[in-house]
Amino acid sequence: MKVLLVDDTRANQLIIGKYLRDMGHQVVLASDGIEAIAAFQSESPDLVLLDVMMPNMDGYEAAVKIRALAGESEWTPILFLSARVTDEDIANGIAAGGDDYLFKPISKIVLAAKMQAMSRIVEMRTTIHEYAQAQMQINKREAEERELARHVFDRMTGLQNLDHEWIHYISRPSSHFSGDIIAAETTPEGDLHVILGDATGHGLAAGLTVMPVADLFHALTARGESIVAIADKLNDRLHSLLPTGRFVAAILVAVKPWQGTIEVWNGGCPPVCLIDADGDVKATFDSQHLPLGVLPGIAGNRSISMSYDRDRPEKLYLFSDGVPDAESLVSGQQFTLDRVAKVLSVNAEQRLDKLMAELESHIGDSSAQDDISIVEIAPPSAERVASQVRFSAQGI
């Protein structure tokens, strides 16, 4: 080890210095507290042997300044050398930042034992420091890789491009990657298709599970396929790609403004709710099918259609199961669908924010156990549809 020996007596420097060199240590000398601080900064010793009674600056004050220079992240053992052996002297030394005491005259045997013990501590500190530095590099690299993966994931799932005047949504992953997917696309006929997918589990594994969904959904919608046909093809794709036990619960919605109807396909998700302007539930669309990817063949050859009121604002609400299943940190109780319906009975313009606020209050300070996704779809009014028809006619 490199040892900083601080003593104002030349004889002590010579005797103790020889002891240390005989033990194989490198010795740096200083004669008072001021020189000790300068040597500590320039030499970066592994250990400091510090006399207490010295001119200019005593050992206690020097120890305090050395500790301040080292900071909280670095630790260098300080052993005081003193002929003063009262309990108060020892307590003052520990309070100043010392780690141990050696009493003068210094015994070579005791010094060797102390140095051996401190050497083990220094080696341990060095190992811990090296491990911490290596772990910091690993954490930095993993953070960069996660950021890259999240960027690619968001691009592939299309969530960052989900911008449509009929849609509002909230998506809160429970970890770095979300196993929920929300996507929307317009058909050649002007219908709006929306999908909410909820993969098994959460985190990276769930995120990988939903990655094949977005591209195929967008492509099939752009070709004018129905939501039933899209569900069928998504089911075949996922069943061929995913291992047993991995699947995607999903809701597909088609909003057909020209006809004034909505169409819903629900495979394994909580009920979809159609809520009128007064906050009353006009209709629910329960799950009628298995989640996508469970079995080969037809995923479910029917959907449920109904008309919506184009003269009064009605909104459709889609949820992943992380919403009703969210558990309270305090009681362990789930949020439940009944509570979802109660929250959604408020003013139509405040529902999403109100629901998310209630969920966060229910969950508490803990992170959600599952991804949370909520989609609000506001089909266009008759006036909006008529204006679009007039605009189209003017463009002919």
What is this structure's SSE topology?
Blueprint: E1 2-6, H1 10-22, E2 26-30, H2 33-43, E3 47-51, H3 59-70, E4 78-82, H4 87-95, E5 100-103, H5 108-157, E6 167-172, E7 180-186, E8 192-199, H6 204-222, H7 227-241, E9 248-256, E10 261-267, E11 272-275, E12 281-285, E13 304-307, E14 315-319, H8 337-343, H9 351-363, E15 372-377, H10 382-394
Parallel strand pairs: 1-2, 1-3, 3-4, 4-5
Antiparallel strand pairs: 6-15, 7-8, 8-9, 9-10, 10-13, 11-12, 11-14, 14-15
Helix pairs in contact: 2-3, 6-7
Task: Tell me briefly what this model is.
The chain has 396 residues and is of the alpha/beta class.
What does this entry look like structurally?
It is built from ten helices and 15 strands. It is α/β, with parallel strands linked by helices and 396 residues long. The protein has two domains: 2-127, 3-Layer(aba) Sandwich (Rossmann fold), CATH 3.40.50.2300; 158-394, Phosphatase 2c, domain 1. Strand 9 (248-256) and strand 10 (261-267) form a beta hairpin. Helix 2 packs parallel to helix 3 (59-70). The relative contact order is 0.09.
N- to C-terminal distance: 88 Å
Q: Structural class, from helix and strand content? A: alpha/beta
CATH fourth-tier homologous superfamily of the largest domain: PPM-type phosphatase domain
**Total count of domains:** 2
Shape by Cα distribution: elongated
Unreliable runs, pLDDT <50, ≥5 residues?
389-396
Helix count? 10
Strand order of the largest sheet: 2-1-3-4-5
At CATH level 3, the topology of the largest domain is Phosphatase 2c, domain 1
| Largest beta-sheet details | 5 strands, parallel
Percentage of residues in strands? 15-25%
CATH architectural type of the largest domain: 4-Layer Sandwich
Order of helices and strands: EHEHEHEHEHEEEHHEEEEEEHHEH
